[in-house]
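pinned: reference chain
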Amino acid sequence: MTPSDREATGLLTRPGDFVQLLDPSGTRHANPEFDPWVADVDLDALVGLHRDMAVVRRLDTEATALQRQGELGLWPPLAGQEAAQIGSARALHDDDFVFSSYREHAVAWLRDVQPHELLSVWRGSASSGWNPFEKRMAIPNIIIGAQSLHAVGWAMGAKWEGSESASIAYFGDGATSEGDVNEALVFAASFAAPTVFFCQNNGWAISEPVGLQSHQPLARRADGFGMPGIRVDGNDVLAVLAVTRWALERARRGEGPTFIEAVTYRMGPHTTADDPKRYRTDDDLAHWRERDPIARVHALLAASGADTDAVDADVKAAADRAAADLRAGITAIPDPEPMSVLDHVYAEPNSHLERQRDRYARYLAMFSDEDGGNR
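pinned: its structure tokens
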């Protein structure tokens, strides 16, 4: 991809285009406005951010392998977007509520969702992977952009109850063309909902470049809805952490919603059913490999005097444990009973559901032998 082509697709990452505290070489740059928001990130905290990103990348690699091995029906990889997700999720308070799309595996990891809970839906073993109220994170939304409305509704309710909690809605660049997202922006601005709209601009809405649907940075759309829009280097975990903390604090003060555009890149396919080689080049991937979010933090650790050999050993051990837990957990999940598909359709029983249950039971009985077993 040539520079002119990259500009046309909205993928240029020139200095000054966005908030950046840590450049691709791992050099830390001063920023008087946002440095105070990460003043507490010492060397130990930086090691923790690096570990989080590296472990999640290993889990993503493992899940992709599981799909290729027939253990999962589908998997949406997140490789390349670790800083955007880890940085923003680390900014959240425990009582905040997350509304995500289907790619926020790193956010789920930090909300204490266990690996097998994250993968059970993609295995077809459950209709949802965890209790949203326990994790303070709704189950992933497959309908593009619908979670943004849910986030605003939750935030409006929290505000009316006098809570200081905020919600965050995660979605990709493609979702900004959906009506649900735009309606959510209208409601959030109108009612000053304590919501952060976190758009991971990963360059591609499946096979279409972001520049096809927006000739301007997506963050500029916020102007039309009467809320701040801020663009951040989505591969810079420090900048993402700072900007998200700033936006959440605005929400808690009653100043309303913020739109964050985290400029990052989807290194893998849209899902494991996609072949990105059909629509992007190796040159484009090489351009973004030089901006790897994990490598730049590792470079900063080395420059800061950290024992990187010890850090690497610790990360490898943590990643190995997580990967082993994932494999053990996913293969141990029992197949659901067929009738359980109707258990949580409605909060209360009703005659319409009972009729469906009866018909489904009679249908299943067609596949049973005389002894009551399944063929």
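why pinned: The beta strands are 97-99, 167-172, 195-201, 204-205, 208-209, 229-233, 258-263. The chain is about 45% helix and 10% strand.
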